[in-house]
Amino acid sequence: MFGTLRGFEVSLFDEFRRLQRQVDDVFASDVHHSFARGVFPAVDVISNPQQVEVYLTAPGIDAKGLDISIQQNVLSVTGRREAQVQNKGSVHRQERFSGEFRRVITLPEDVDPSRVSASYVDGVVRISVQRREAAKPRQIEIH
Question: What is the residue range of 15's domain?
Fold first, then answer.
């Protein structure tokens, strides 16, 4: 379809393949993370009228090493994940994150920082923050 570009004796696709090989060669010896800074662990935030639940996918992390704090309406989770790689050869690709991490999540204004609970099951941290009673909708009956 494209054939050759004017002034070039090779096809456009051949040039793309050559460029891809060069990029692969550059990164073949380097180890890099697939996660951008601030993206590990993955987070889901679910909200309903009673509470806000935060789920952090944190496999391989010791729950006792996590520091979970809430100040006003800002939830902070910090910790460290050590990759358990047996060095029996050259590493060609490393996508599992290792090192220190910190996730900061701004919660709605109506959460109650004194009513927080956290659990860790099967590599998932669940943090539940209750909403203030005054902020919950209240049904008023007419007499």
Answer: 1-30
